Amino acid sequence: MINKLLLGFIMLFASLWKSLGADIVQLKAILQAKLKMDDRTPLQMGRPSTKKKKINYYSTLSFFIYALFGLFYAFPLFIVDNDFLLSLTEYYSMLLLMLWFMMVVGFSTVLIDTRDNFILLPRPINDKTLLLARLLHILIYLLRLVLPLSIPGMIVLGFMKGWTTVLFFFVPIFLLSLLVLFLVNALYLLIIKLAGPKKFKDIIGSFQIALSVLMFASSYVMPRMFQSEKIMSMTIYDLPWIKWIPTYWLAGLWTWFYKVNVFFTGTKWMSLLSVILPFAALWATVKWLAPKFIQAIALGEGQEVVQLNPSTITNLNKQNKYYQILSSLLNKNPEAKAGFELTWLQTTRNRAFKMKVYPSLAYIPIYFFFVVLSRPGQNHDELIARMSSPKAFLILLYMCAFALLTAAMNLIYSEQYKASWIYFTPPVERPGNIMSGAFKALFVKYYLPFATIVGIVVVYFSGWKTLPDILIAQFNIINFVLISLRASMVALPFSVKEQMRDRGAKNIMRMIMIFLVIPCLGLAHFLTIKFWMLKFVVYPLILILSWMLWDSYKKTSWQAITQINLDE
Amino acid sequence: MQAIISVRNLQKSYDSKVVLNGINLDILPGQIIGYIGPNGAGKSTTVKILTGIIRDYEGSVEVNGKPLSEQVLEVKKMVGYIPELAELYDVLTPNEYLQFVGKLHHLEDHVIQERIEKMLKSFGLIDYQHQRMDSFSKGMRQKVLIISGLIHNPSIVIMDEPLSGLDANAVIMVKELLQALKQDGKTIFYCSHMMDVVEKVSDRIILIDKGTIIADGSIQELRTYENESLEHIFSKLTAGEDQGVKAGEIVSALGIQKEEASNDQ
Q1: Are residue A133 and residue A281 in the same domain, yes or no?
Q2: Mean pLDDT of A393-402
Q3: Residue A416 belongs to some domain of the structure
C-alpha cells in the first residue's frame, strides 16, 4: 500500500524522468518488481512472520515501527526547550545519522544484488533507465524511512509552535534526504573502492553491528543525558562550531522562514547553503557517485574467488590453534569438540549471529558504568559503601548472564540451516554431545570474560568472603541458561531457519520459565546472604540442579531434536 | 556374493503424496550403480534414507547385513554422502569444515589433517585451505563436499549429482576417482542427470520413476530393448512422449512453424 502510494508519487514526475532519458514503461516495471521484492524481504529491525499471508505487509508494518523510532528521536524537540535552534539542529542531526545508518544497513543487500546483471542487463534497457531505476528505488526506500521517522517530530512541532509550521516542516526533511542519498552513495563507493566488491558485505556487516550497539546504547544513554542540568541549560552560544554543520543550516532555514529567534549573524547565508548543498549533492550522486558504484559492482561480478591474501591466511591459522587448544582442554568427546569448534568459529564470523548478540554485549558495560557506577555527586566512600552491599554485587554478578543467555537463545538459528545436513550423516551417537560442546564455547566466549572482570570488582569492593557467592552465581547462571534452552526449541547449533523461531505454546512456556523459575533461583541466592543458615540448603540444591540440568542437556537424544525440513 | 545394500519394499510418503512405492534393490560390493530418474522420481528420498537422514520410512534396508533402522550408527560409519547442493557453513575455511566433519566421524586429529591436506592437494585447493568458503565458486565448494564425504574412508559412497558445478578437469578427475574407489573395493551409488557420465562409469543402471523402479541392468542389458543411448532410453521410459513434439509446440506458441525457426537459424 505504502509502496504503491510512493511509486504513484514518483511517477507524477514521469515527464522529468523521460526528459532525463529514461523509458517510462521500463522504469515503472523495474520499480514495481523491485518494490514487490522489498515487500517480501524480512524487516531489518524486526523478525519476519512465519505466516505466509502476512508476507506482503512488511512495508506497512515497518512504517509503524519506524514511527515509534521517530518518537524517540523527537525527544530533543520538546525536552531541550531553552534554545529552539539548538534542539532543531540536534533533531536533524540525529535524523540524518539515523537515516544514514539505516540506509547503509538496510539497503546494501538490495543495492549489491547482482541479479540485475543477469535479469536486466541482457534486456534492451538503456543506461539512463537503469541508473534512474536504481536511484529512484533508493529514494523510495529513503522516503519509506523518512516519513514515519519524521511524523512524530512534525506532531511535536505542531503542538509547540503551531500547526502552520507543519506546512514547511517537510522541506528541510526533503533536503536532508538528498544529503543522506549523497552520503550513502559516497560511503558505498568509498568502501567498494578501498576494500573491493567481495569485502563490501563484510564491512557493511560491521556497520550493522555498530548500528545495533549504538541504538541499544543510545536507548540507555539519551534519557540520562536529558536528566543532566548542564545539557539542558546549553544554548547555541556554548557551541560556536555548530554553524559549520549542515544540519544547523537546515534548522536555520526553518527558523528563518518562520522568523523564530536567529542567534548567529550570517544564518541567512548558511540557510541558503542548506538548499544549494543538497541539490549539489544530488547532482554529484547522479553524475558521478551512482554510475561509479554500479560500475564497481559490475566489475566485481564474475570474480567469484578472492585472491589469496597471505595476511588473512596467517590470521586464520593463528586463530585455529587458539580455539582448538581451548576445545581440547574443555572437551573429551570428539563430537563435543566438533560442536565447540563449529560454534566458536560461527559465532566469530557469522554476521547475523553477531547482529543479534553484540548489542547485548554492549548492555553489560553500559549498565555497569551508567547505572551502577555513575551517580551524580557520589564520592569514593559512597561508591564503596554502595558497591559492597549484597544487592549491588549480586546484580553485577547476574547481569553478566545477559550476553550468554542471548547467545544461547540464538545458537540454533542460521541463514545456512540447510548446511546442517552434515550432522545427520556421520555416526553421531547423541546430539547432546555436540550441543554440550557448543554450550561450552558460548560460556567461554560470552560469559567468562565478563564474569572474571566482575568477579575481580566484587572481590575488590566486598572482599574474599564473597567468593562462595561468586561461585554459586556461576552455577545459578548455568541453571538459568539451561532452563531457558530446555524451554525453547531443542535443535543442533545453526540448524534452524530464522522464520521458525517459535512463538507458540513453547514460547509462552519459556516466558513463564524465565519470569518465574529464574528469579526464584536468584532470590534463593539473595536470601542466603540475608539468612546465612539457608546456605546449607540452597547451595547444595543449586549444585544438584546444575548437575541434573547439565546431565540431561548432554544426553539429549535424536528423538528430542526438532525435525527440520531441510528441503524447504 | 552377499549384497552390501539390500532394500526391501521401501516406501515413503509425505502427507498423502507417495514418493517411494515399494523399491527393491540388491547392490553388490564393488559396483558403481547409476541411479537415475526424472525430477521428483524419488532419487533424493532414496539417498536420504540410505544415508540415515530420513528415519521414518516403511520397508527394510540392510547395509552390510546391518539393519538400518536398528543400527543406524554402524551403517553411517560405512557410508559417505556427497549431496547435490553445496550447502555448507561457508564462514568456515575448508580446513575448519573438514576438521569438523572428521571429528563427527571420531577420527584422530592428525589423521584428519593428513587426509585433508592430501585430498585438498589432489583437488587443487591446498592453497585455499585457510580461506573462508563464502568467497568460493560452486565448483570449489563441491570439491570440499566430495572430500567431506570421503574423509572417513567409507566402504559405500553415495553421490547425488557430484559433478554439479565442477569444471571439465574436475569432472575428469571425479570420473577417475570413481574408478579408483571401485578398484579399492568400494561400492558407489551414483545419482545423476548426466546420462553420458552415468553410461560411461556405471556397472549397473537403475531407472526410477514415480517412486518405482522401471528399469534395472547394465547399459548393454538396457540396450537390448532400445538400441539407443541412455539419454534416449531414459526419455522414452520416463517422458512417454517424443521431446521433439514438445519442442515443436513451444515454437508454435510463438506463432511460427518449426521449419521456419530452423531456417531462421
Answers
A1: yes
A2: 83
A3: yes
Examine the domain organization and report whether A344 and A279 are in the same domain. no
- Cα distances (angstroms) measured from residue A345 to each of A342, A415, B90, B100, B141: 5, 15, 11, 11, 18
Rounded CA-CA distance A178/A104 in Å is 14
Between chains, do A427 and B77 touch, taking CB under 8 Å as contact? Answer: yes
Q: Give the position of cell 536468584.
A: A522
β-strands B156-160, B79-82 pairing: parallel
Task: Identify the pLDDT of residue A503.
Answer: 52
Q: Which domains does chain B have, with CATH numbers?
A: 5-86+154-251 (3.40.50.300)
Cell numbers representing residue A63 in the block: 512504517
Same domain membership, residue A186 and residue A140: yes
What is the SS3 assignment for B171? helix
Residue A413, beta-bridge partner list: A496
Question: Pick the residue with more confidence: A161 or B178?
Answer: B178
Of A304, A305, A342, the CB nearest to B100: A342
Q: Are A181 and A139 in contact, with CB atoms under 8 Å apart? A: yes
Residue A140 sits at φ, ψ, to 5 deg, of: -65, -40
Within 10 angstroms of residue A5's Cβ, the number of other Cβ atoms is: 11
- Residue A58: predicted pLDDT: 59
Q: Do B53 and A421 touch (CB under 8 A)?
A: yes
* Claim to verify: residue A188 and residue A287 sit in the same structural domain: yes
Residue type, B200: K
Q: Nearest chain A Cα to B71, which residue?
A: A427
Q: Which of A309-323, A441-455, A476-490, B21-35 shows the lowest mean pLDDT across its residues?
A: A309-323
Is the predicted ipTM greater than 0.85, yes or no? no
Domain count, chain A: 2
Which residue of B78, B91, B116, B141 is the best one to mutate when testing the A interface, meaning the one whose CB has the most A CBs within 10 A? B91
What residues of chain A lie within 8 A of the CB of B84, using their CB? none
Q: What is the mean pLDDT of residues B47-54?
A: 89
Do both A407 and A266 map to the same domain? no
CA separation, residue A389 to residues A366, A384, A450, A465 (Å): 20, 9, 20, 13
Range of the domain at A34: 2-300
Q: A250 and A353, same structural domain?
A: no
Do residues A408 and A548 share a domain? yes
> How many contacts does A have with B, using Cβ atoms within 8 A?
104
Considering the domain boundaries, does residue A305 fall inside one?
A: no
pLDDT above 70: percentage of residues in chain A:
73
